[in-house]
Design a protein that fits this description.
Blueprint (H helix, E strand, L loop, with lengths): L1 H11 L1 E2 L8 E9 L10 E8 L4 H6 L9 H4 L2 E11 L7 E2 L3 H11 L5 H5 L5 E8 L8 E9 L10 E7 L4 E8 L18 H10 L9 H32 L14 H9 L1 H45 L1 H4 L6 H80 L6 H4 L20 H32 L1 H31 L4
Parallel strand pairs: 1-5, 4-9
Antiparallel strand pairs: 2-3, 2-4, 6-7, 7-8, 8-9
Helix pairs in contact: 6-7, 7-9, 7-11, 9-11
Keywords: Membrane, Transmembrane, Transmembrane helix
Length: about 500
Amino acid sequence: MLGVDRQHILDSSDWISTDNEHPVRYIEAWRHAEPVEGDETAGLMAQGELQDAEANDWLVQTGSFAKRDSKEIGSPKEATRLVICERYGWKPLGFEMSQDSFLAIESSFRLPPETLSILNSDGGQYHYALERSRFESANTVRSMTIIVKLPQMFQLGNWGLALSHSFDTSTTSAFLHGWNVLSDYHPVTRERVVPAQERIGPLIYSAIGSCGRPTLLPIILLKEHLSRINLFMGELESTATAIESTFKVTKSGRLANSEGGPLELMKLMANEEERTKLTTLLNTTMTDTVNLTCVIKWDRRYCKFLKELHGVIRTFDSESSSQVGESELEIILRHLECDLESAFEYVESIAARLNLQLTVLYNLVAQAENDLTARMTAATGLDSAAMKTLAFVTTVFLPPTFIATLFSMSMFDWQAGSTSPSSPDGGGLDGYVVRAFWVYWAVSVPLTILVLVGWRVWWHHQRSQYARQYQHRTQTKEGSKIASEAKLKKGWAKYLRRRRVEPDY
């Protein structure tokens, strides 16, 4: 099953074998039983570039990579051999080396078959496997494999480590792959960074007394990862302080003597572009803080895994089991564990501060919206007062206007009315109104009724459309109303039943 995944990733990966900008590098460290002349630590170290054509010579230590005669310096007691390869791109998995060189390293180092699958993953992973002897006692372990994939976060790196350790020869053979392990140019930010190999080499040499321990490189990987976490925490803290300074509502810590007040804050809230930039910065920083918190949690679990692994090794490794007290690596692990706890608490405090600023932003936006609503309400009130005045004036003048319009119609003949025979005194109404006056009422009354009916039909249509558009809300309101009424009726029924059951004294 693992072989199928391995072959698929092997075929789909990008392999850069010629003119690669960052050729593979190697680091070798070994320690002898007796001190070497001029070196009291009895340790030696070599490192350099490794071209594709030289990979096989380096693996078997021939040609220009042949060691000095063992009679001259003695046989190595412990050794660590590390190959470092820069990761090219993100997806698909990229290697700045040829496929043949990788296969040769994988075979010579006896790396586990799931190496490519774990290097291709985005989340953090770690596990180990033991190879026991077939001919000796069941407790005899000949070798161990360890695979570590740090969780991907471009500010910290995207590294993977696969190694095998032989307890017979006390030799660790490892392959390290990831962003900026060799390159000083960040693939995302386009900024200059310090390659990991510039720190890994000195760290290996500083612990050369433990170069034959299988957990040395995993611990160094954790230490380098933690150093980048600390750098990124400093950037987040500076950004959080800048955000607090922009809001000008926090007067604590380094901002205790900061200047600024409500006037600058109101100007900021009034500027939509600046407000949007600040919101983007705040949410981005908050997201980075949440991601960093998850990474530190993973590092804490990884540190615990390494401590448990030391206990497992002590059960079958004679050198580890005979050791009294803590080894150098166990002391380093305990120190890293404290650093991770401190980093976790620090990042949590940054997240809490950013949450406060996010709450401040929401409150300011809500306040700005409330102010806008208040201004709109005031303007609406002024408009309403103006409309009331206009309606009052219209109401006052409407009856006289209607009467004047009606009497000015041709259906009234005021001149003819004064000479009408039906009104001897000239004051009768029959002489003033023409006989066809009924036409006015016959047309205006049905037309008025038609307009009212049309308005009613339109209003019914609009109400139905509103009900369909806001069906969920109306149903919720109606359901709440029905539920309240049902609850009230149920309460009254319960009360009445209790009254019927209770005897009267």
